[in-house]
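Blackboard transcription, Thursday session:
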Amino acid sequence: MAPKSSAATKQHATPAPAAAPEASPAAAGNALQSLLNAYNQNTSPRLKLIDAFLVFLMISGVLQFLYCVLVTNFPFNAFLAGFGSCVGQFVLTASLRSQVNPANRNEFKDISPERAFADFALGSIVLHFFVYNFLG
Amino acid sequence: MATKAYTLPTNVAPETVANIRSLVRIVSLALISAAAISSRLFAVVNFESIIHEFDPWFNYRATKLLAAKGFYEFWNWFDPTAWYPLGRVVGGTIYPGLMATSGVIYNVLHALNLPVDIRNICVLLAPGFSALTAWSTYMFTKELKDESAGLLAAAFIGIVPGYISRSVAGSYDNEAIAIFLLMFTFYCWIKALKTGSAFFGTLAALFYFYMVAAWGGYAFITNMIPLHALALILMGRFSSRLYVAYSSWYAIGTLASMQVPFVGFQPVRTSEHMAALGVFGLLQIIAFAELVRSHVSSKQFQTLLYASVVAMGLVGFFGIVGLTYKGWIAPWTGRFYSLWDTGYAKKYIPIIASVSEHQPTAWPSFFMDLHMLIFLFPAGVIMCFSKLRDEHIFVIIYSVVASYFAGVMVRLMLTLTPVVCVAAAVALSSLLDTYIDPTEPVPEEIEPTEAEATPQDPAKKSKKAAPAGNPTSLGEYFSRFTGNTNKPRGIFGINNRLIVLFNTFGMLVFFVIHCTWVTSNAYSSPSVVLASTGADGNPHIIDDFREAYYWLRQNTPEDAVVMSWWDYGYQIAGMANRTTLVDNNTWNNTHIATVGKAMSSSEEVAYPILKKHDVDYILIIFGGLLGYSGDDINKFLWMVRIAQGVWPDEIQEPNYFTKQGEYRVDDRAPDTMKNSLMYKMSYYRFNELFGGQQAMDRVRGQQMPKQGPTLDYLDEAFTSENWIVRIYQVRKEDILGRDLKIANAFEQGRKRKKTKPPVRRRALA
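(Written on the board underneath:)
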């Protein structure tokens, strides 16, 4: 459910100011603008690469979910496997992102970036082993 | 400088101390494993290497097939001899973890040219895994406190009767490996949470998968971990480590759990699994919000974000509720309702309530199963509060939840036992730490200055202050409450130390004696073979069950259908290798009710039912002669109740009681009771044993009527040595087309009654 919910949060953030009386639309626009600016300035290219992958996974997951809801869920196991691979890969990549993020250095004391990548690789292999088995 | 109660040698190198420590740890763990395994061998020593009880017989039968024909045959196994005439798809209706484990061990041993019999592997699997449980409990407790607490916890779980009751040699059931998997999954989870490592998250998911494959109790993990995560979020302890640990566990673990055919799509379709999904979604939202917050500090934006997070959470919650309402997500199953409402099962699902291990726990069994640990348990939980790291919260939640469940159902004592051992070990080890530590408290007059004067020596300070507790601990709050914060705290002199240590040692000795006694006396009986002690003290083995099952195997055609109450289905299939109508799988309530109806109605009503189901033999358990209380007459009311659930017009429970509401089998028993098939089969020819004197039922303690029951539609085929098992053959229909009752009367030379309708065969068509 991760891609869906995160995406929804983003969409939700834009129309909500109309409901809140003290926040004008312009202020919200400014806030979004400042968020984008801050993101562009403070994020290293490596993290941006990871973020691009995350966005791709999210789009892929949303598409599969829409297909399941709108067209058919017939091979339900295949849908679950495909959707699960997107969600699983998403959270593993997000974990990798937070582990290599220098801002979180003090949280992950015993995990070096190399170790984080090894964990990520192992988790992905295990995940896709089950995905492959479940595709049917 | 602080004085010492006794002096320690100072001329030892720190490396030597560390080496000796680790050596002692390894040796202790090895000894604990040996103790855990050997105390479970009472069953083999006292009786023999035999599979116990009921369910293990099925597991054993399935494992034999797996070992003989390979995994694919086992996976696709359709068993036509169970639930006759329906059959059972075994591969898709079991948790295959246990059989797969034994199968792997069997194949590995055979590959090493060690031709071990599959039966011995099955018998010794549970003791073997108990050693692994001890080890994983050690690892778990080590994360909570330290190695010494870990060793204590391992020793406790190794010999505590609450766990031994499910893991003696021969008790080849899912719980045998499940407790190890439970503890190890929890250990991986704690470790993943502590370090924020996706590796341990993945490992937790893999062991979770193994657990799902092994035991239906996996739902406990499925709900414990989300509950812990949710508690951490609500306490404001969200961290990236929590995100990494939970997400990697859930994403991989859920997908993995769906690989087990018996579980299938349940993780996305049933309410039991929705908590995990909900917490997973919540974590994603919170993690995203945290990420955004790290980039902007605008106040209004944060308010906005907060509002949208709450809104998303509510939308998700109502979404799940709505989906449940529309039927996309299955609501809670009956077994789960019976956990919340203890009267539920008795009202709506008698088949669940009829199982003795689903009854509420009686309080003496807490002491019997846990002995002194049950007193140390609360102390250990309180000590968790004084540190309150993330893993301590886990233990607190676990102990609260498991205590409740253990009170509701006897069998869930098993899930309580590990946390009791862990908490008790933490408590006891803190006690020992305090009293073995040689540091003497500093006398009162220099204490106030020292409190400020020695901040540069924090290690020594905290060690000394351990009994008083650090500023956040409960002890500090208590001492503030009593107003004597500045008093030095600690233990003076060696005598006080020795008194406490000696008492603790005594308690541990009693614990070991109690555990050994309970194990050897209460939990090591295979229940297939009974033991009694004669007047002269000689043991006497009662082997009626196997005698009867082997009689069936030797003397009946291979395709004979045997009807019995469902308790004995697996044993008949496993030992007698005959087709059964119902067994311990209990998946089809109507089929069980049919058997219940046949047992509780009169011969004339039961005979067509028997004929329709091709029943050749009926097997019942009768303890009246020997005083064996677990017999079918004592279970009879459940048969009536279950049958009444399906045929309320034909079977009514009150008819089986006397006018005064008593359950009797003697002269005063009501006619419905006396005419029921079960009553007749149990007491048929029972009078003859007593040679003219009045017969006595030793279980019910009642005098039997002078005139015993007669049977027209059944023949007695076999009765075991002590009358525990009685087998009846269903008569063939009369060749002349007469009703069997009339034919019987004719053979005995009596006249046919004119009033009876001549032919009753129509009922069969």
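Lecturer's comment: Confidence is low (pLDDT under 50) at residues 446-471 of chain B.
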